[in-house]
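Hi there,

I know you've been waiting on this one. I reran it after we fixed the sequence typo, so this is the corrected version. Both the input and the resulting structure follow.
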Amino acid sequence: MDDIGRLPPGRVKVGTKQTAKTVEQGNARMVYVAQDADSRLVGRILQLCKQRGVPVTFVDTMRNLGKSCGIDVGTAAAAVAEE
């Protein structure tokens, strides 16, 4: 996985619940999922993305994904919302 850099503040929805909600509402432009996240946490998100045609990028660790989102803790998933 390449370094994804810093995701755009204000447009990033962090966490599995907020990511799933953003995808369900049709507002997700891109979804990021940590490879070391529990599959039970991200399975539904991956399924929703597949159904709705939202691209998914895998990030190596939850910690790195959290850092890219501008938070000090790890996260299993994040979505970049439409403007």
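Quick highlight: The two ends are 26 Å apart (CA to CA).

Best,
R. S.
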